[in-house]
Amino acid sequence: MQIEDIKILFKNNKEEALFGRYITNNNIEPLLDKLAQKFTVETIGYSVLNNPIYGVKIGSGDKRILMWSQMHGNESTTTKALFDLFNSFFDDKNYLNPILQAYTLYVIPILNPDGAQAYTRINANEVDLNRDAQNLTQPESLVLRKTFESFKPHFCYNLHGQRTIFSAGNTNKSATVSFLSPAQDEACTVTPNRMVAMEVIGVMNDVLQNLIPNQVGVYDDAFNINCIGDTFQSQNVPTILFEAGHFEGDYDREYTRELIYTSYISSLIYISGHDIDGKNSHSYFDIPENEKNFLDVVIRNVGGYSNDSLVDIGIQFKETLVGGNIEFVPIVEKIEVLVGVYGHKEFDAAGEKVLGDDGKKLTINNENDFVILKNEKIALIPK
Questions:
Q1: Out of 4, 156, 235, 279, which residue is the most buried by the measure of CB atoms under 10 Å away?
Q2: CB under 8 Å to 50, separation ≥6 — which residues?
Q3: 10 Å Cβ neighbour count for 12?
Q4: What does the alpha-carbon distance between residue 320 and residue 326 come to, in Å, rounded to a whole number?
Q5: Could you give a GO molecular-function term held by this entry (predicted)?
Q6: Segment holding 161, helix H or strand E
Q7: Could you give all domains of the chain from N- to C-terminal order, each with its CATH number?
Q8: Which runs of consecutive H residues, i.e. helices, occur in 169-306?
Q9: For residues 137-155, average pLDDT
């Protein structure tokens, strides 16, 4: 399938009921009711606060793929793309449907509904579910493990979102999409199992390079058996970490959503048509490792802070849930000369002072919706 075909498929099947960063059970339950007309939709467990955790089963093929999203409740971009994918398979006349003769997909759209509701990474017991893969102290962790054991997948898709701080390598290119074939032992051995996952990632990267050149990264593969990806990989199930990141100006992650959808489609097509043995995994090693090179806003060459020296001011947005909406609160993180650090938005003060919205010099941890430069207000928050 050509990239243009995937673009058309996304446009025709984008789930318009889902938008932005705040996605909860309340948003997806009406959509699940519709999906139940054709797919198997079931409640597979309950969260700490007794909110339902849903599973969706699609297809009838022998290759089984387990996918779960919003293990971290505030990482919702991959969930939006899942419902775009569901829509793509819903139409009986859709030419993607032969794939479902090769696959059975089992999808958990929101594993952590309490965290999704509160817009937090952790669950209601303040536990990071992605560090609970061994101890299994939380009901959500048990739901995922039981699903893994009963479904017996051939592949796992571990779906996440990442902060705006990441660059694709030591560059000024944002890591808009990132992947990882997690380690399965302390030595981070490149096992045949990992190579299978690496081959699939290489295919997705090849497609994405046509859309976001030099903006795909991979994460450090340091082994942590408490992480779910490392655990499932260690059980010899090829596991792929997906990370939805930042594209210029796209704080709602709507373009990133399309890129994740493109990754889903291209990987599913590839797996359905190949007996993957990892021998074509070499391109994975060409993908740069993520660095932390970005802040949301950098104001360069600011005067009045350090005698006659100029400094840079680095600002990072704090995502805050307010009245059912996510607001981006600009917070000053650094006042220094920022070398090798880039802003998704940059301003040049040209030696002038920069003041906060209270008319005073900025300090670390200041919150400001705008700054004053040359007697002009400059808005910091994304539109």
A1: 156
A2: none
A3: 12
A4: 5
A5: zinc ion binding
A6: strand 155-161
A7: 3-291 (3.40.630.10), 294-379 (2.30.40.10)
A8: 192-208, 228-234, 254-273
A9: 98
